[in-house]
Specification:
Belongs to the GTP-binding elongation factor family. LepA subfamily. Belongs to the TRAFAC class translation factor GTPase superfamily. Classic translation factor GTPase family. LepA subfamily. With 598 residues, the chain is of the alpha+beta class. It is 26% helix and 35% strand. The protein has 13 helices and 33 strands. An 8-stranded antiparallel sheet has the order 11-10-16-7-8-15-12-13. The structure holds guanosine-5'-diphosphate and magnesium ion. The site of guanosine-5'-diphosphate has 16 residues, from helix 1.
Amino acid sequence: IPRQRIRNFCIIAHIDHGKSTLADRLLEYTNTISERKMQDQVLDKMDLEKERGITIKAKAVRMIYKADDGKEYLLNLIDTPGHVDFNYEVSRSLAACEGALLIVDASQGIEAQTLANTYLALEHNLEIIPIINKIDLPSAEPDEAKREVEEIIGLDAENAIMTSAKTGQGVKEVLEAIVQRIPAPEGCNELPLRALIFDSLYDPYKGAVAFVRVIDGHIRPKQMIKMMSTNNIFEVAEIGVFNPDMQPVQYLQAGEVGYVAAGIKNVIDTRVGDTITDAENPAKKPLPGYKKAVPMVFCGMYPAEGEEYESLKEALGKLQLSDASLFFEPETSAALGFGFRCGFLGLLHMDVVQERLEREYNLNIITTAPSVIFKVKKTDGSKIEVDNPTNFPDPAEIEYIEEPYVEASIMLPTEYMGAVMDLCQEKRGTMKDMEYINEKRVILRYDMPLSEIIYDLFDQLKSRTRGYASLDYELTGYKKSDMVKLDILLNGEIVDALSFIVHKDKAYGRARQITEKLKEVIPRHLFEVPIQAAIGGKIIARETVKALRKNVLAKCYGGDISRKKKLLEKQKEGKKRMRKIGNVELPQEAFMAVLKME
Ligand code: GDP
Ligand code: MG
């Protein structure tokens, strides 16, 4: 199929607006997958994604569509992640396309993430086709959705396509619009090779596989290729297309989308955003926009049972093979023993990794409170970056501290405005502006510390707006802040894994909450257990777990033996999930207590 009949596009949609369902309908209509094989939501391969209804990694699929003009077109759908943690991946996927379908749920209207991704697409000069989905729903308001597309995004919505991905209505119109409105890719087969890596995966047989869009030149098996960010050279073992499974081909030309396998051992060598060129006839300049993905959120991960350390190490290593943005290195904690300091793109990424470790690798792990990277200027003139409370310098050595800030956009129904403004205030936010979408919905923009967002902004926002608000944020830079390290002491000993960094004004409140919470979860001992919170050695809150007075079994006196047995078993069960800190038994949920407050 000549380049003039190739169309590369992606789908932009807020979570649950119907991206995966519409993608499935497109695959069905073009017979890309036989109906027998068709299971719902082909694009979301990972179980976890299916369960959470989110698309975590970008995927690609190729379709052949015979259009009304009688000609066959090759359509490449590049699926993008729908979550703000993965914004960089989204931007690389967009850079591989000429057009985007913008799906708006007719019963919900535009959401913050849709807006953010549409702006990204406009920056990349993509042709955008607005699609109003779920028109079958009784609560659908397609005209209102159209109006929002025009007024908020500024796109002409006159030619918006009305669809129901559920019933299949409008699917053919979508395919025709892709062919007619999205331009064919430009590029030249004769120029030196430049292929953009927009995603990668790890295959046990093929190694790290790069998903690419060939921008210029062409690529064949046996060719020597060079990764332009590292200058590493590999010999192409196999190239192919997504059908939707990987299918080898002999040639990929400018404008095409496919994969490249070159016996690469690790996805670290197939970095998203990097440019692949020909090793013998290299391009002068790489494609623009490459950034190394940097972790923004860090936490400690420890095996719940000490002996699982090696399994945790192995599991993290395996996950990293397919997730170049996952960072980890060994660390030790006096309280938790041997574990790892892990870095993530954001909180969702962290959750996903934790869940995969538990589910796919059957591990029980304890995570410590997540932290952002603080920059600390010390009185000796040096500047250090701190992502672990353990490394936080003594207050006397600190000249000033800077923390990362974001611009947060929150879209919500006007009735919750008061509640959300209060919340943002509590989160140390400063309002930058407010924009009415219509008389019922509004966008608020705030300057806010990233650490407040990762603390629990998402959850709070959801509960205070009954799930009607959506959030998007973008890192804007570092600002000076009065941060302190809060230590928790049990029976006079600091429990390093419970320390965290917090704003000075919030330290007292948090200290009180945590000591109270710990008092609830720590069982009574034979002696009194003081729980204290301290900043730089100064105690700012205290609770006490009273000493145990009688034997628990005393209760069972006269009782039947089976009840006694049960009680003993229950105690044993409880013991297993305990950590011994000094001479205090700390239940594992205590670590969770610090994470999930309020
Ligand atoms: P995604 O998160 O954007 O990929 O959304 P999904 O495709 O997973 O769809 C979210 C939910 O909306 C699922 O329960 C779908 O069955 C449902 N859905 C998708 N499209 C339609 C539609 O046109 N009409 C109705 N009634 N439901 C739809
Ligand atoms: Mg989906």
